[in-house]
User: What shape does this take?
Amino acid sequence: MEPKKIREGYLVKKGSVFNSWKPMWVVLLEDGIEFYKKKSDNSPKGMIPLKGSTLTSPCQDFGKRMAAFLEERDAWVRDIKKAIKCIEGGQKFARKSTRRSIRLPETIDLSALYLSMKDADKGVKELKLEKDKKVFNHCFTGNCVIDWLLSKQSVRNRQEGLMIASSLLNEGFLQPAGDLSKNAVDGTAETSFLDNPDAFYYFADSGFFCEENSSDDDVILKEEFRGIIVKQGCLLKQGHRRKNWKVRKFILREDPAYLHYYDPAGGEDPLGAIHLRGCVVTAVESTPDAKKSGDENLFEIITATEVHYFLQAASPQERTEWIKAIQVVSRTGK
Assistant: This one.
């Protein structure tokens, strides 16, 4: 009997290595909890089996955060407890092969595997890699990870290796380095981990650092960050390619006039920059494409080179504040 879906929705999940909380699309089934990076994903990032599990509510680690949606939390707790009780009562399920394939083999211990990978003599070798005028220290490639897993007979084939490596990445044991691997984590590839010689990764607690080769472009990039910070905060930003909406942390600087945006989960390097000198910024009621964020508190930035950026604030007041601040910077900043 295939397990039925009980409920689904967005919840925040804590990483097993770092203390960061990330929103995930969660599906509660009769025998387990599957979590996805986003609702539209076909395959889950992982699964929590309910057999032998215990549940504690409220979660003390999350106590300092805003205690919102208590009714929704209690409903999840109630349904999970019922599912655990059914499992303990002897109810069994026969999962289809598509679901069984995403479960880790019982012999796999990610923590132990991570320690083996870090072994100085027999583990994955950390190298100095260069790509796109950048040097990545204490790094390794995606295909080297899969090769190592096969050589240690930890997996039977490269596809299974991708599943294990993706689990290590999703749980924070491995970290992406470089645009290719970071974009895969953001959902632009079929799997979060890439079996690719151009995809770079590093151990979470290694001495990884990235340095850029000297060039005129580097001088320009450093110049962007000399401006005084005028305003910062989180906004929704629409992607140019896929037109999807993501939360980004924005920092507005003047002289020179730039609006940099970052991953809100952390990271010192910006994901992108908007040069505001001579730009036009205005409130809009909707975006020209079908993928909309709710059509509330939207505003648009049109740069001097005619690149359009659509952003969304949390409230009308916040939208007004951002528009006024950007308008001032666009006139005074170079």
Remarks:
- Residues 63-68, 96-102, 214-220 have pLDDT under 50 and may be disordered.
- Residues 70-88 form the longest helix (19 residues).
